[in-house]
Amino acid sequence: MENDIQFMRLALELAKRGEGLVEPNPMVGCVLVKNGNVIGKGFHTQFGKPHAEIEALHDAQKCCGEESVAGSTCYVTLEPCSHYGKTPPCTAALQSSGIRRIVVAMRDPNPLVNGQGLKILRDAGFEITEHVLENEAHSLNAPYLTLLQKHRPWIIAKWAMTLDGRLASRTGSSRWISSEASRKIVHRLRSRMDAIMIGSQTALRDNPDLTARLDEVVPRTPIRIVLDSNAALTSEYRLVQTARQIPVLLVVNHNAPKKRIKTLQDAGCEILPLLSENTESENTESENIESKNTNPENTAHDYRNRTEILMKLLAQRKITNLLVEGGKQVFGTLFDMKLIDEAHVFIAPKLIGGESAYPVVGGIGLAEMERAWKLELPEIQITGQDVYIHGRILYKEDDSYILKR
Predict the structure, then answer these.
(1) For 97-110, what is each residue's pLDDT tens digit?
(2) Cis status of the peptide bond prior to 176, with omega within 30 of 0
(3) Between residues 70 and 138, which one has the greater pLDDT?
(4) Is 53 a catalytic residue?
């Protein structure tokens, strides 16, 4: 069992290398071992390309010849697939390989697999060992599992703030709060996302590109999403100017001005209209897909309702990792709904003061400090002059903290 843990840990390390490349597929790693020695390694390198088991088999055969695989043990972080998708089923390749034993970290809850892969292999005479480093495998593929089981993306909140907790000054000035070193980390984070989302006021105030700008080739180009209830963006903004090169999705109210929508569509923006339950609030400009209302309870309900609808629609598009970069109402709604799974925060050693300066998180928030949300095993480092804190969110339920997985 000790060796099983050792080799499965190596498989998990390999799987991690597929991050940002394989989504909406899961990250999977595979190690082939014979007589205590690793003879083949592989991981799922890109969506649509061969799975980890196939890569490991090819690696072993290239290194040691086809016959060397016979009698070996296969360590794989996720149950082998048993269906034809973009690639043939891995169960078929394993059956013809001569492998004797298969060790699996976790079952694949995908309805097309969900135990069928292991059943096929057991029926074929393989010795099967399950649940080796299962928790670690679940944690690795939390975004995949969230999309599959909760029908929403894995949501990552990112912001940079001053030491006194401000996103921008009272005039809206925010460039630059964080250091150049911190911004490079942000671009790297963006480069593995499926989508980046902001509210309309953030788009209007900051005029961002929301692109991943790195010296190296980026794994993927995320779609840019703006929660722009009244279609307030114009051709003066960089998001609109670049919409034909890099996709832009504008989430608007169903009754947003048709003339503005037509102009934005002509510029290359995709428009996603959402119907609000609260029609009184739909004629005012908003930070989120939501809009202001004199009744906070109605407003919060409307925010949540449309956020739920939007998350389901994004899941249907196979958006696995969603990076949210502001503003306060967007963060507030998502935190109030306990939908943010992960946070990346850059704290700059700067102070700007001012009661009307922009805070980070709006929404209703919590009444008691003892119920404050926490980060699970937060990582803290210095980037330039900034403090960079990131980790997964723990929400308090009853008397204990849990991860919203």
Answers:
(1) 889 999 999 999 99
(2) yes
(3) 138
(4) yes
Confidence of residue 285 (pLDDT cuts 50, 70, 90): very low
Q: What does the block give as tokens for 309?
A: 């609808």
Q: Which pair of tokens denotes residue 293?
A: 């209302």
Residues 338-373 pLDDT 10s: 999 999 999 999 999 988 888 888 888 888 888 888
Residue pLDDT, tens place only, 212-249:
888 777 778 899 999 999 999 999 999 999 999 999 99
- Compute the distance between CA of residue 183 and CA of residue 68 in angstroms, rounded to an integer: 48
For residue 296, the model assigns a pLDDT of 58
Q: Which of 2, 13, 53, 379 is catalytic?
A: 53
- Assign 86 a pLDDT band (cuts: 50, 70, 90): low
Long-range CB contacts (within 8 A, 24+) of 398-404: 401/374, 403/341, 403/376, 404/338, 404/339, 404/341
Structure-block tokens of residue 67: 């016959």
Specify whether the CB–CB gap between 207 and 233 falls below 8 A: no
Distance, CA of 254 to CA of 233 (rounded, Å): 16
Rounded Cα gap, residues 76 and 11, in angstroms: 6
Question: Taking the CA of residue 58 as centre, how many other CA atoms within 13 Å lie in the half-sphere pointing to its CB?
Answer: 10
Helix (H) or strand (E) holding 144: helix 142-150
* Sequence-ordered list of residues with C-beta below 8 angstroms from that of 266, at least 6 positions apart, any chain: none
Q: Where are the alpha helices (DSSP H) in 17-115?
A: 52-64, 90-95
Distance CA 108, CA 116 (A): 9
The residue ranges of DSSP E strands in 57-171, in sequence order, are 73-78, 101-106, 127-129, 154-161, 166-168
Sign for the pseudo-dihedral over CA of 78, 83, 87, 90: positive
DSSP codes of every residue in 157-169: EEEEE-TTSEEE-
236-284: pLDDT as tens digits: 999 999 999 999 999 999 899 999 999 999 999 999 999 765 544 443 3
